[in-house]
Amino acid sequence: MRRRSMHREERAAFGGWGPGFGPRGRGGGRGARRTKRGNVRAAILALLAERPMHGYEMIQELESRTGGLWRPSPGSVYPTLQLLEDEGLISGEQSSGKRLFSLADAGRTEAESHRTPPWAEITEDAGEAATHFHDAMGRLMMAIRQVMHAGSEEQKARALDVVNDARRRLYGILADDED
Fold first, then answer.
1. Which of 40, 48, 66, 162 has the fewest CB neighbours in a 10 Å radius?
2. Which ranges in the chain belong to alpha helices (H)?
3. Which residue range forms the structural domain that includes residue 71?
């Protein structure tokens, strides 16, 4: 119970929602997603063209290859794996308590029909800056969590000032944009 009230106090410092969260959930709500969703089917086939993989391994690999811009959910990956298996494009077998998937010949043919891997489209559309921003935001959030967990009240107040100043300065960048 003590931990819950501490968490509530930490969230209060960020307007009640906590860092990085808004009233509509992670990312601030409607319209917050700027990168397009990837083609899960094509991505799975492209990954399996390289080597056999487990479902969760594919999710991690796609997140890694897009610099964190795209992490398909298990709710989209696993049904797609089942569909591809039903279509005879991939096969799955139990290995070490997990299901290891590999391409069938028909799946290899379909994978080769795509010129560029789906993750390349996502990173190109988002631009290099988006990848760097995602990494920087992750490091910033870690620093905020550490200050909120281990900092004194004065340090927490100073950290909040820094975050609020950064927000104002970012909006200032947009205000100066002449495009």
1. 162
2. 2-12, 40-50, 55-65, 74-86, 105-112, 118-126, 128-150, 153-176
3. 37-121
